């Protein structure tokens, strides 16, 4: 439909040759006879843009009366722990009348909006920006009685599964200084594993909840795509967006999932999620039998046999799987060769959409757009690009290349991702859950910022078993199941994570398997 207009404003800045200049990089031209008309139409749309820009934005209202933000501050050296685990310290006290999370302490990955709290996103490319609205998960946590104690450091624009890329500083693994805490929910995972908070809410677009949970030794849950609204959380590729809890127990993860899940009337990712407050994952766990009689578990061959999987990690997870048999479950090996395509499919999606998002060109979703953030980070400057971590530069370069050289490839990867999801669903008709190592290795030593390959090497390969489930949307949980020696020093033992994956909307099954395992086994004693 054409733009309607009656006249062009006198101060309209559009020039006669602007339309042609916009088309020139694409190798397209305008017929000279049409130049005047397209100038008029472009000037008209400019006036429309000026009109919309002048209108007030529409952001959700945050309740600062019931939930005031106390003592918001950047922590000094005396407050920092585990390197630079905190982004901002503050206190927002939860519902005084209590709730399922009453008394629980929470940190939020520093991409989750808290009104009045500056957000850094692990970057120093742009000044911190301050949200005016709370993310949906923040509102729900507070209503459930949780106390939010701060935002935890994340990796640079969430583009790393290491824990040394944040502009705010390095996060130390709580089990061994000098080793990675994983990313990009690095600070939060370390805080939970060290017992400094009960819950962290993280973001997972390729493994950023499950990878740090595995490396730090805590529980990390990525729910089914869309179960938890992403409203008020910084996005990369909306197809891969997931948020969920990191905790020390499966029961806490289940309780948190009950609180934060359900469509919020804003985020179209969550339109298919059940009504808020209607799930009973925690109650079901408390009532479920301690054994797993009748449960069928598939050992995914490709998840173990990939050449990147360290033999010690493989053996720890296989030993852990045998505990399921002791609990009455049936265990069988199962193969899905297409599992190995997951990293490539995820990479194409993330690079193309990630570049568009970074450049302010990602559109097409109904939800909350965080316009304050967009104004802070756009337009890009060369100085900002030079200061970016190599992984961010790589996303932009890769995305621009793929979009220009492989037109239509993003759509094809989305189609193939749906095919992968369907193939997993066929497996879940036979098996209740599938198991595999969360990460192929235990925590590596920190890398260092240098040339791009040197900077990116410590993260390479860590998501071979996690990223595919961001593509397919299946729920997956990582639980700690023992220790294996560090590659760099055999005297250093670090946690090993086992990933348990279920059918779409079947969180109850992975939570039951996880809860039964940890109820009968103390992973900390499995050295």
TrEMBL record:
Instruction: Drop me one GO molecular function for this one.
Output: catalytic activity
> Which taxonomic lineage does the organism of this UniProt entry have?
Eukaryota, Fungi, Dikarya, Ascomycota, Pezizomycotina
A Pfam family it matches = Amidase
What region holds the Amidase domain?
95-511
Q: What is the name attached to this protein's record? A: Amidase
